[in-house]
Amino acid sequence: MKYAVGAAALAAVTTGPALAGGVERSNQSVSILFEQGTYVELGFSRFDPDVSGSSNSSGLASGDMLPGFNGASLAFKQDLGDNATVALILDEPIGADVSYDSTNNYPLGSPTTTLDGANADVNATGVTALLRYELPSNVSLIGGLRAIRTSGTVSLPGVGAYSLNSSTETDFGYILGIAWEKPEIAARVVLTYSSAIDHSFDTVETAGSSSFSNDLDVTVPESLTLEFQTGVAVDTLIFGSARWVDWTSFDITPDLYTGSVVPGGSLVDYDHDVITYNLGVGRKFNENWSAAILVGYEKHEGTYTGNLGPTDGFRSIGLAATYTTGKVKVTGGIRYVEIGDAKTEFGPTRTRFKGNDGVGVGLRVGYYF
Q1: What is the pLDDT of residue 168?
Q2: pTM given for the model
Q3: What residue range is the signal peptide (predicted)?
Q4: Chain centroid, CA 153 distance in Å
């Protein structure tokens, strides 16, 4: 019996960068370990959100403050004998790109049109090395190391003329997992744990004409991911994932900012951990074409969120199609995301961000050697 291979299905999961927790850009899937033979895959993605809000008290509008962003990934997989498999993955695990409009009187804009509004930029590149070892009874053990290289900047010209620039730091974590398979029905369940990664940045904080050099500790949070798939009919596959991330440990609270610019405040923090769910169906139509449909969900918490990431959960639907010819497979997909309404506070200003959404597209090209 033949079942729909997971190409289009797994591509739908990663159509466009992820949104989990507001700053996650990849779902850190280990599915490449289960590709056949020697395999390499290059991926590109784009997400264009529309996120804006207005103050409940004054009616001041934020404007569209979340620009579109791109993503890229590269992955390689190689068998080592009959029981061992290795993989190397290059991706962008977290990121932020925030820009408030400078032409209005919103508190995070600029008090004059000669300056830009508030903006923030977080860039991270991840390299993950994985090893999978097959045991009897269709069980596999997975382990690996992950390195993340991260830097960030923040500029709040309308908030005490505050800015922050960080050093670029590279730090390491580990991955542990276990998998079970039943190949005759294309069944597979994979559970992986990714450890937290702690960065210690050197920062320069500026408020008005004063500058200070400080240390800033930030934790890229630990996570637990469950991925599964199974054939339900000839050439038909159901698949999905559930991913928990300890976002309450992700906190950006620089000394000068919390000490005197916004006393007791944080640039970024979370009140809740986040679980992101995906569920889909894949179908193989012939030797060349397969397709999938996927829905995603992240709970709306209803608590206050940060002004540099005013989103609260989401619902999404995605479509993907894969064309396979010879040793090449090409997958394209599109995803619509209904971004959860969020509420923020900044001093006396309370703002609701509602009715927001976004569209993501992705392209993946794989080659079997």
Answers
A1: 96
A2: 0.90
A3: 1-20
A4: 19
